[in-house]
Automatic annotation (TrEMBL), chains A, B:
Example GO BP: acetyl-CoA metabolic process
Naturally occurring in which organism (per UniProt): Prevotella koreensis
PANTHER family assigned to the protein according to its UniProt record, in alphabetical order: ACETYL-COA HYDROLASE (PTHR43609)
Key word Transferase present: yes
Name of this chain's protein: Succinate CoA transferase
Top-level taxon of the source organism: Bacteria
Residues the record lists as binding CoA: 358, 378, 382, 402
């Protein structure tokens, strides 16, 4: 190959203070890792020398420790969008040190193209293979679709490729690279089935724009998820039973519908419970993140076709995919985040969306992002893309947190990411509240009865007693009494509304 | 014509307590009016006789006095979705007397088909013409697309047509009737341009399902909108200038993009200001409700093509359309609400969405529905469908209400319909806050500086001073201090956070 090889440090040396960087990846999967570690070192050196050095970072979703982690520690991030899950980043952002813009993931690529964030200076893309075709480079993505074609096209100063030999070049066979045109020229996204492919396996760009290739061998940094526990298992069973009942009464078609399930142990528990039930036919998955459990089901045929933006799986699982590529290339497709999370496609396919909430309120609003209204946990991710457009919109959470000191059902969410208009079903380990067709007061009754922990039911009924009549019943000065009591006394059980009511 | 004529009273006599009725119309435009008046009378008679009589009503959006009005007064409505604007209905719903489910308008038809609301017993459809073709009836809608084809197809007990001779049969030429298939069979909605037609001009159904035709001559009940005033004019100018600046710096394409603008005097002021500016090329409108001002611009060619769900216009304006049908049929299209408000189409076309909010908060969340968190005003309508999927998402409101006693900019919205993830721009008569790319704290600064009334700026800055650090800064017990002070003292100016902070 005739391309220019450079080291990660040489690549980092090219990047200037205040530059905006667009990166491959979606979750730690497929994210650039080599240059970012050198960028963190550069930032530390620059800061030691008394010079400013911070950059803006745009990716498909979160990244791993080699990006958001080391760069947060090095205070190298000025601006970040659209999502992160990193603990070091979280500390910085909640201390007000990073400007973080928490976006619907389907919005990121198009808003970059629309020019809402200024110029993208650099694209840093992890690839598993590179070809030169005339004066073009064709590069092949690894474990995620992300926003890569967009940032490659937009990067004004150049494209840096991390050719990571940890990934098998066969990874190319699961990618369907597609970037829509922008208005007024956009066309329908022609996906009608979960497995439809509409693009190319590669990203192509002018070879003159390639700054250099950084060769590396770095494992993916996918997170380990907690094993399921009795609570998440019970939530999984509750959701599975509910969906089966809805299928049996003819709401969900007998062929079932594609599933989207968030990340983590609850998601695994739900999928596991569905897969184990013989009434549920083999099903499809149209989601943003595929975890190990879906890969297992895909390889056994229980999941027929799976489409996602990333393989957020253990490295063992990733190797299993690469080793079974003849099968996987027919049944597994990775897409760009604006396609995996496209409202158009999600609504057309009739996806059943299941995501976890931090808290939900009596009227069916959900908080996906903030602890007690102020501290960012991760971000909204794709939950809004999926839930708003789903055939069935489901949120799950354990009914309590912190050994019962926190009720996840509250009078008023301390931060709202999903409104009452967007939530059909709430499930906890206690049971399921079906909010479809219900007025706000009927929803409150269903949520307290079916989802709240017994310890908190009376406190929630008491709130309704002091609430003013209206379409939505509230007592505003007492709306956050449970949150404030937690902050002051460490336990929501101790809430006394009388302290708040004026 | 061989169809059965019945009177409105005869039709009403067929409808039983607890029946669910699906109706034509979207806003008062095109809504059934004759049978509903008789239903109200029947309810009163039944109630006088000590018998229960209440029905569920499903329409495209709001209706007029002859439906929500008289039926609310008669306590004839048990359940209502997805939207209303009627004052009598509002009183009932805020007194807890009607179960009202406030939905995204794009969700109504598909959720009826999915079976979320049980059976639809009757369809009552206002039509301008009827044809019999073999054993089929073809009926032609009047001033709105609504959910009519869906409720005609679903109605288990029968279809009642109100053949309203107030409407010119030529109204048929502006309709494009299209009902998508449901998952897993749904296909792309093939609209690529505002004026594209993809369906038929009529709704067709088996003649055996026609219960009868009620002949009537009743004017449409479109609301009169307040004339613009200096405040709405200034908001209009601010938005127009902002959009022109965004076009001049290359964000909005030079061809401009289709506009969606809510209902009312601010919407008219914005469209007027844009139309008067010579830098803005002739533009398209892709919206849910067309008002008189758009029709004026359409007839002069300033608006090239307009697509909507309803003609919510004065009756004079409606007659002007009917009188200019040769021109209007080429440039004006009425669609079903799930198409006019389709996330798929709105995102594809790159619609610029402009809607009014009741209040917005420091972080860019918007309340479209509730006064002080409890009293329903109208409903979310299509604002969520458009704003979430818009190329540019704009909310407008006067900076104050009630002679300045209320600030429309508050620390925390008392009800949230649109989250921080869905709002790009906030405009008041004071100015415009561009929230794109901004972190929550940067948004708060921009909103206070640019949008808040000078009387309230200090109060809002003071809130940030007492707010806890985090991604989103709040002091939860004081978050609704302004609202509670208004409730207790009649004036948000008198807010003293010290009364609330624990």
């Amino acid at each position: 190959m005739a391309y220019t090889r450079i080291t990660a440090a040489e690549a980092a040396a090219l990047i200037k203070n205040d530059d905006n960087i667009g990166m491959s990846g979606f979750t730690p999967a497929g994210t650039a890792k080599a240059v970012t570690r050198e960028l963190a070192k550069k930032a530390e050196a620059e800061h030691t020398a008394g010079r400013p050095f911070q950059v803006g970072i745009f990716t498909g979703a979160s990244t791993g420790q080699s990006t958001d982690g080391v760069m947060s520690i090095a205070q190298a991030i000025k601006y970040r969008a659209p999502y992160t899950t990193n603990g070091d980043f979280r500390k910085s952002v909640n201390a007000g040190e990073i400007a973080y813009n928490d976006l619907h993931l389907s919005h990121m690529a198009q808003e970059l193209r629309y020019g809402f964030y200024g110029d993208i200076d650099w694209a840093i893309i992890e690839v598993c293979d590179i070809e030169e075709v005339g004066d073009k480079i064709r590069c092949y993505l690894t474990a995620a679709g992300g926003i890569s074609p967009t940032v490659v096209r937009l990067a004004k100063k150049g494209v840096i490729l991390e050719l990571n030999s940890f990934h098998n070049p066969n990874a190319k066979f699961i990618h369907d690279v597609y970037e829509p045109l922008d208005p007024p020229y956009r066309k329908p996204i022609p996906i009608e089935n979960v497995g439809d492919r509409i693009g190319t396996p590669y990203i192509e760009f002018d070879a003159s724009r390639l700054t250099g290739v950084v060769e590396c061998n770095l494992p993916d940094e996918a997170r380990a998820f907690k094993d399921s526990d009795p609570i998440t298992d019970q939530i999984g069973n509750n959701v599975a039973e509910f969906l089966i009942a809805d299928m049996n009464r003819g709401i969900i078609p007998p062929t079932f519908l594609p599933l989207q399930s968030g990340v983590g142990s609850t998601a695994n528990a739900i999928l596991g419970a569905l897969a184990q039930n013989k009434q549920v036919p083999d099903f499809n998955v149209y989601t943003e993140v595929i975890q190990d459990s879906v890969v297992d089901m895909l390889l056994t045929g229980r999941v027929k076709d799976a489409s996602a933006c990333s393989l957020t799986v253990s490295n063992e699982c990733l190797m299993q995919i690469y080793d079974n590529m003849d099968y996987c290339r027919k049944h597994l497709t990775l897409r760009q985040s604006e396609i995996s999370n496209s409202p158009e496609v999600i609504r057309r396919l009739g996806v059943i969306a299941i995501n976890t909430a931090i808290e939900v309120d009596l009227y069916g609003n959900a908080n996906s992002t903030h602890i007690s209204g102020t501290k960012m946990m991760n971000g909204i991710g794709g939950s809004g893309d999926f839930e708003r457009n789903a055939f069935l919109s489901i949120f799950t959470c354990p009914s309590t947190a912190k050994n019962g000191m926190i009720s996840s059902i509250v009078p008023f969410c301390s931060h709202l990411d999903h409104t009452e208009h967007d939530v059909n079903i709430i499930a906890t380990e206690q049971g399921v509240a079906d909010l479809r067709g219900k007025s706000p007061y009927e929803r409150a009754q269903a949520i307290i009865e079916n989802c709240a922990h017994p310890d908190y039911k009376q406190l929630l009924w008491d709130y309704l007693k002091i609430a003013k009549m209206g379409q939505t019943r509230h007592n505003l000065p007492a709306a956050f009494a449970m949150h404030d009591t937690l902050a002051r006394k460490g336990d929501m059980h101790l809430t006394d509304y009388a302290e708040y009511v004026k």
